[in-house]
Design a protein that fits this description.
alpha/beta; binds zinc ion; Metallo-beta-lactamase, Chain A; seven-stranded mixed sheet; 249 residues; five-stranded mixed sheet
Amino acid sequence: MNLINLGSSSSGNSYFIELEREALPPVKLMLEVGFPLKELHKKCVANNININEIEAFLVTHNHNDHSAAAKDLIKRGKKVYGNSYITGGNPLTTLEHNIKKYIASDTTVIPFKVEHDAPESLGFIIQTSKETILFVNDCKYYKSDLSRIKFDYVFIESNYDGQSIHFAYTNAKENNDHINKKRYERLLNSHMSIKNSVEHLKLLDLSQCKAIFLMHLSDTNSNEHLFIKRVKEATGIKTFACKKNGGLV
Ligand SMILES: [Zn+2]
Ligand SMILES: [Zn+2]
């Protein structure tokens, strides 16, 4: 697999990946299109990505930081897969819980429900004859049992550190800071803490996993180096954090 992170935060998400295939060149996919098309296009050009070579775009849910370019890409005839809020209900591209779909030659996706404060939010298992990846972005938790799948690469949200956010939340409550109180409540109810990411990772078969990528880290309530260390210690797998403005740590 080849990965180029174009952006990873509540200001915008987009990940370009190439997955190996048997007897075919790698399939080029884009996971999340959370920047306006013009900006996404610029990011692609800066990273030597030809947007016209991308065979499928996959979007987890209809929050702007994941889906901003979806409508414009669909208008331009691109194959954008997601729930019906993304696709307008087009049966060719609409994804539903546990229903496997072919998205390119030798490339399938199995979507599954995740808990988040957007309707029908999804996680993805994407598979070719050579590689299998797990992609879980904005999500408090998911219930699907994925323990029988051997993942080569795992992408998972790791938004905040529970301890630091509970401390900030208590402070906001005590200071009658309603705006931050609401903001923290939203984070706690719709995003994944590092502790929760680790717990979900521990339930997976990582015996073939080559790398874990942490996504969507909060600007103020996370520490990328500490998060990487915690995941590495818990799983024994090489771990990277996707940086807010692109690239990896
Ligand atoms: Zn988000
Ligand atoms: Zn969201």
